[in-house]
Amino acid sequence: MLPKNSQLNTMIKTPSWSRISIVATLCLSTWVSLATAQSNASFVEKDVTGHQALSRELAQNMWGWAETRFHEQKSSQAMQQILAEQGFKVEAGIAGMPTAFVATYGSDDGPVIGILAEMDALPGLSQQAAPHKQAIDGKAAGHACGHHLFGAGSLSAALTVKNWLQQNKIKGQIRLYGTPAEEGGSGKVYMVREGLFDDVDTVLHWHPGDQNTTQPMSTLANKTAKFRFHGIASHAAAAPERGRSALDAVEAMNYMVNMMREHVPSDTRIHYIITNGGSAPNVVPEFAEVYYYMRTPSAADLPALWSRLEKTAQAAALGTETTVDWEIMSGVWSTLPNATLAKVAHDAMQTFGGIDYSPEEQKFSDEIRPTLSKRALKQIGNEQKIATFTDDIYHATASTDVGDISWNVPTAGFVTATWVPGTAPHSWQAVATGGMSIGYKGMQLASKTLALSAIRLFEQPELIQKAKTEWRERVGDVQYQSQIGDRSPAL
């Protein structure tokens, strides 16, 4: 029993109208926030669905064109035309790349949010939209990384955000960046170098995949170059002593690099192909070329390792009495994760849920699954789920030029299930699934997630500030410097 006149007793017996008012205000505020969130989600659902036919047609056309890096003329032009017709201001041919563009809508007196749109296909991966391996006659390339879905899905999201800004008279700006040559061309790096992201508050992107996940992710930094050896041609049988084989030099370099693999950090990756090995076996090759990729988790570690790679080229030339020169083709930084933005994307994706296959899509999935790895059997049904969100960083082994943007602007991306679970990127199965309705459904989920994420950032600028604070903490004292130097795009 409480003693008489105690403060607690008084509080219980005498209602505090100020406290009641505060509680009522908080309840009303929460209700309004929930109602607004539901209203925005409904708007996004309706708007994205409203131009679903447009985005699917665009994706299907891009899939058919399958244009490789720096040659995405039809894809880029198609996107630019749609954006211009929808009221965006389009600036094309930027950063020295004919197919790069920036499309802008909105005012200069609010947040600036960028969305990335890739468009390039991969060479040598022509494939029909069928559950068995079958190339398209006359086609040499295919969208094995789903960039046709990436581009069309991002464009769809930008249209929805534009419509929302317009309808609600919100101050701010949405930008769609048409970014060519992600596959080995580092297109975004040139855009960063031109300062095209300097005034952007946050950047959002996504990527086709075989699951739905928004987990914060890092990728590997990389650098690529073509090493060109020059020798002396001669008859390989009649006068071999007069020749100096450029191909021998390539093979000597490759041998030394393969020995070097044992003496680099275990998470370093080195790949190469011989792009020119001579023209005839009975002619000592006077020219040969080898194309190298090197990847590391941190861009800071690349210079020392790359220097060793260059030394193998110099040593190979010395030992074979040839000469060598090389051209840096591309180079990207690792991706800097941002958990704040990733959580915004996760909440948005959760709003819409996973993907349900139609009977026809399930049949396609069942038919293509035996061509996948055993891992695919463990992933059946992943397209229906949204992966649980954690702040733990997922360390991917791929590389992307998004990395360079992320070291200059708070950036986050996510993955949706555009492929049958268990599908590997850069495979014929990815091309096949990306050319039919399974791919389009994953793209639609991405469009909705991007759009609702951007809308929430416009409505809650404190999230942008939180993302910037996290970004500054992660960057620390690292000074960004492009891996490509002052070279022009390798058109």
From TrEMBL:
Superkingdom: Bacteria
Pfam families listed in its UniProt record: M20_dimer, Peptidase_M20
GO cellular component: cytoplasm
GO molecular function, one term: para-aminobenzoyl-glutamate hydrolase activity
InterPro entries reported for this sequence: Amidohydrolase, Aminobenzoyl-glu_utiliz_pB, Bact_exopeptidase_dim_dom, Peptidase_M20, Peptidase_M20/M20A_hydrolases, Peptidase_M20_dimer
Alphabetic keyword roster: Hydrolase, Signal
Domain Peptidase M20 dimerisation intervals: 223-318
Record bears the keyword Signal: yes
Keyword Hydrolase: yes
Transmembrane intervals: none
Record GO biological process: folic acid catabolic process
Record's signal peptide: 1-37
Protein name (record): Aminobenzoyl-glutamate utilization protein B
Organism: Paraglaciecola arctica BSs20135
Gene (UniProt): abgB
